[in-house]
């Protein structure tokens, strides 16, 4: 008899069904047993409200069906969307996701990797910034936006193509003199290729360009200083700006408003990421859109792929341009209504 | 000797240290052993890079140090912030968090609760919409925004006070005729008290008000119709609007723009939630701010509290008003710079 306040065990199910313990185990694990036995076991499971103890199962199979996601936070709209999509991609495959908010802290990132190893998760997906992050070979790891080692797949947008696309779009929209504004991590990572792509696009289209690259620790005020230095006779030298993220477009628009420069009339701006109002409204600015759902799927697919002897070291996924109010013409056929 | 490609076990540590298995166990579990033994065991742990198998430990202690968070998604800025804050509150207590994106789906919510029980998590925090959600008494559960049963603590903002605050603020800002706009779940839940609070505030201040309450499935166009019905001689009847969420302020502003009504000059608007641009910029509108960090802390605190015979059935946490550009005057002393 099942005691009160104690969850029924496999043994209780066997007793209730009047079968051997091995038969219960076979039914639970989907192995072939006689139909009448199967029915008796399933009835006993229902009657006792027996739940498989996944911890015991995980210990036995050496599988936890759990993946850890390391990401700075979920309140930045890009990270929030990415965490959501990875969660869905894992769910489709019956995997659970541990959310590990790292707050960009290298120590926390390393601690989470260690914790994930201790807890024997089946894999780790990491969007990390620790330049010396140590990752144990024993656990599958997929990195977003940054190559950690040749054995660890890195998944990113095609950042180079995105930068180039921004330059070409500004040229198509009639810009004659453009600027590139960047602030962020000085780590070697995939998003840094946006700069090279943009330069390449400007050169290909004979579009003169200036650059202002700020370090992580810099103040956004330095962009204001840079823009003010490029004011002559009450007009801005630039008629087009490519900002390395939509977040920077947000800051730059505030600076331009203060300076009395109109967007998009005086200067057109393109950002990068594809952030939408409330995660689902309009694009917050004209932007190069990262394919978040595809990035999530690719991360999960490569992470859980067990029969692959060589995993691709770098996967770049195609980006698209979307109109979001900070450029002059609305394009036909874009995603935005 | 430790075999390659296989994690060291407690036995390996005992062999390496030249002590009994029980001694290793005592050191790992912080029980008293002779200092020299302790040093030898710790050295062996370091040398072998031994990690405690948390699965085995969890099985033994019947603890997983894992909490499941059920939330519709992380791309809506309110949910993204809440998931982040709960993650931090759990981390402080050395707990891990399983993120379970439910997409408002009642079936998925129930499945996640079942999954969480099967996986023997130590507790569940849920922001759910399933009217018939079945929650097993055996696992601690804390609900956000909705009472599930008298035995399950419900944590929410003080929504009634927030609605009242919105009415009083509009009165203070000189409004003479106001409207309340709501769309959303018809479930009995805490956010529904915003309406009663608003009515109460209007009555207390002798402020005439109209209401437009839409069901979940309704189109936002019905707000446009309602507002157009209240246009006379090119002017809107209302000089103040309280929207039940910041998300609705976003939609209503677009409608008003189309109608040629200026915000805040012609009509002042207050929302609810406290959403900021990019999760950390300016408030997207003047708003009643939910205390997200405090809600997260209270959820985790009550969930993990084991020595409480009676847990509070409903906890309401204080809200604040913040200026965000859709009201006329910037208040002194608010959160927003």
Radius of gyration of chain A: 26 Å
- Let me know the average pLDDT of chain A: 89
Helix content of chain A: 25-40%
The global form of chain A is: elongated
The assigned structural class of chain A equals: alpha/beta
- The sequence of SSEs of chain A as H and E is HHHHEHEHEEEHEHEHEEEHEEHEE
Task: Spell out the key features of this protein.
337 residues, six-stranded parallel β-sheet, six-stranded mixed β-sheet, 11 helices, 14 strands, 18% strand, elongated, disordered C terminus
Describe this structure in words.
Chain A has 337 residues and is α/β, with parallel strands linked by helices. The first copy, chain A, starts with 9 loop residues before the first helix and ends in a 15-residue tail after the last strand. In chain A, helix 5 links the parallel strand 1 and strand 2 (96-101). Chain A has a six-stranded parallel beta sheet with strand order 2-1-3-4-5-13, with helices on both faces. Chain A has a six-stranded mixed beta sheet with strand order 7-6-10-11-12-14, with helices on both faces. Chain A is elongated. Chain A is 38% helix and 18% strand. The longest helix of chain A has 16 residues, at 77-92. In chain A, helix 1 packs across helix 2, helix 1 (10-17) crosses helix 3 and helix 7 (159-172) runs parallel beside helix 8 (193-204). The first copy, chain A, has helices at 10-17, 21-28, 35-48, 54-61, 77-92, 106-118, 159-172, 193-204, 221-229, 246-259, 292-304; strands spanning 66-71, 96-101, 123-126, 141-144, 154-157, 178-184, 209-215, 231-232, 235-236, 240-243, 268-273, 287-289, 314-317, 320-322. Chains A and B meet through helix 4, helix 5, strand 2 and helix 6 of A and helix 4, helix 5, strand 2 and helix 6 of B.
């Amino acid at each position: 008899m099942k005691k009160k306040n104690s969850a029924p065990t496999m043994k209780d199910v066997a007793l209730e069904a009047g079968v051997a313990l091995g038969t219960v185990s076979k039914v639970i694990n989907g192995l072939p047993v006689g139909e009448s036995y199967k029915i008796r076991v399933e009835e006993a499971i229902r009657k006792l409200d027996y739940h498989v103890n996944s911890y015991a199962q995980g210990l036995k199979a050496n599988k936890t069906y759990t993946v850890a996601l390391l990401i700075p936070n979920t309140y930045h709209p890009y990270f929030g969307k990415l965490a959501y999509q990875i969660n869905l991609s894992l769910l489709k495959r019956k995997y659970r996701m541990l959310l590990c908010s790292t707050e960009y802290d290298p120590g926390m990132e390393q601690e989470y990797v260690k914790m994930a190893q201790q807890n024997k998760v089946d894999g780790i997906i990491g969007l990390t910034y620790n330049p010396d992050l140590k990752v144990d070979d024993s656990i599958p790891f997929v990195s977003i936006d940054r190559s950690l080692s040749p054995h660890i797949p890195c998944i990113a947008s095609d950042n180079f193509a995105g930068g180039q696309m921004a330059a070409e779009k500004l040229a198509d929209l009639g810009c004659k003199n453009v600027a590139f504004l960047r602030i962020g991590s000085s780590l070697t990572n995939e998003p840094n290729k946006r700069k090279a792509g943009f330069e390449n696009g400007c050169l290909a289209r004979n579009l003169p360009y200036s650059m202002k690259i700020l370090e992580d620790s810099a103040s956004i005020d330095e962009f204001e200083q840079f823009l003010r230095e490029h004011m002559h006779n009450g007009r801005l030298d630039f008629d087009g700006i490519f900002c390395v993220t939509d977040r920077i477009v947000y800051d730059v628009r505030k600076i331009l408003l203060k300076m009395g420069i109109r967007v998009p009339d005086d200067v057109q701006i393109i950002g990068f990421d594809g952030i939408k109002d409330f995660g689902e409204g309009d694009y917050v600015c004209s932007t190069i859109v990262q394919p978040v759902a595809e990035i999530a799927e690719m991360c999960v697919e490569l992470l859980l792929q067990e029969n692959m002897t060589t995993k691709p070291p770098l996967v770049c996924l195609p980006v698209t341009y979307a109109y979001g109010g900070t450029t002059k013409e609305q394009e036909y056929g874009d995603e935005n209504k």
